[in-house]
Write a structure and sequence with these properties.
alpha/beta; 6 helices; 25-stranded mixed sheet; five-stranded antiparallel sheet
Length: 569
Amino acid sequence: MENVIIKNGFGFKLSDDKQKLFAFTVPTANKIELSSSSLKQDLIDENCTLYIDDFLLSEFISRFQAKKKGEQLEAEIGYVKDATCEILIHSDKMKASLWLVPSFGGEKITLQDIKYALTKHGVTFGIVSDDVLTELVNREEVSNVTIAKGIPPINGVDSQFISLLPEKTEKAPVISDDENAIVDYRELGDIFFVRDGDLLAEKIAATKGTSGTNVLGEFLTQKEGVEKPLSSDDSTRLNPENTNQLLSAITGQPVITENSVHVNAVLSLNSIDLSTGNVRYGGSIEVEHNVENGMTVFSSKDIVINGDIINSKIECLGDLLVKGSVLGTSQLIVNGKVQIKKGVQGYKEKIENAESVSLESLTPRIFAANFIILGFAENFEVESDNNIVIEQHALNCKLMAENIEVGAKSKKASIAGGVAWATNVVKVPVVGNSASLPTKICVGLNPQIQTAIEETEELLEQNKKKQKNVQNTLAYLNQNYTPENESNKMKLNFILKELESQANIHDLELIDYKSQMKFIENPKIIIGQRVNIGTTIQIRKAFLNIGKVIAKSTFISDKGEVQLIKPKM
């Protein structure tokens, strides 16, 4: 641009050394309208190459707007600014990143400048080629580009013990059509066992691994794998032909331990309480009496409890049969079938230091991958990937399954309070009670997938709000230049990219969940006796609030609405 430029009522001029740019006003009869955007556009039109400082420019305009008539103003608004180069070494010293800010009438960054910066920061290893650096220099402006990478060490692997046991075959449940039939969980079927001389496990020797180097050229030593002996006990022995192999010495159920396999029969206990401690067992478990307050039980196979479960957590990969009741804040997580003959009665435990305890741990809950049969259910969350059958009543429960049947052995049984949510069918004699206890019955949507969709949509909404907050902060920092703000901008840009990446993952998850949400044909709610006031009926996305007592009925979906079908008289 020229040294001095004068327009209608204002002008620009360079300092004698052409290192600074000034804006000034001149006498004019016309009214002058100035703004940051118009002045910047004028400078662009005049091919100005100096850095325009937004703060100084805003200050000049503020002074212009406040000046008295006839008063002349002159102020610096820009200056020559050299290009800058910044190297960031990541905290683990395994990566170095480059930022380049272009020059404004000043000195440009050269290849040698970058190499000097790398040397200054001590980066000597894993640097990209000069051709790549030259390409970055030619681009003049780059952000967070990796220009050096270290080689991480590869730790050795400890000696491993590979089970040579066959995988367990899943047993398919057999459900009788007889409404009075029960499932006998004591009938375990063909449980896998080994015989004397069967091959159980084999040891693989440890490895040493390889060393590495970080971008500072520092040598990184690897951790060599630990060689552990293959141990045996009274139930096993080493193979005399290959001492890295373990053989069974008895007939029974194998239990994989840390560096061996132990063979045992079904674990039989009088009760599980403080005298036994928490029980983790790699086979089936049978308890003669109760699982007492606060205990944790894990089995890789089936569990039979002849008494009650009281405020305890039970996990098993097989089936669970409880001949008594499940009480308190108990949680049952079962990979197979569940039968609680007497029923479940829960409550949320009141404790003094509630902040230190997970809310989940206080929620009475049953989850089973297969079907669930209960005598009755009160104040419990019950979820199955298959069907739920409750013989008597469900009070203030959250039930989720493919199909739900309450009252299999009682025509007066009811679902009162809480939610019963089935993919296909809910069948129950009575819904709600005379006190209009709020009760919700839902069918037509897969409860697990719909819950996952709603949780993912909530995560996306939270992510969107976080991105907006970061963007607002960046906009402020862009208008207020300081070296500290420039550093903060880099950090915020990194955070923004992380949030965008998380949002992309949630979007893909949401697409996947929605693709799994299949249209359910003929979902229905079958009421054997009556529906009380205070009940909400939901079929797919349609709702019906019950404002009066309705006698024996079936609810279906018709053209997107809830349709009531009365039985023919």
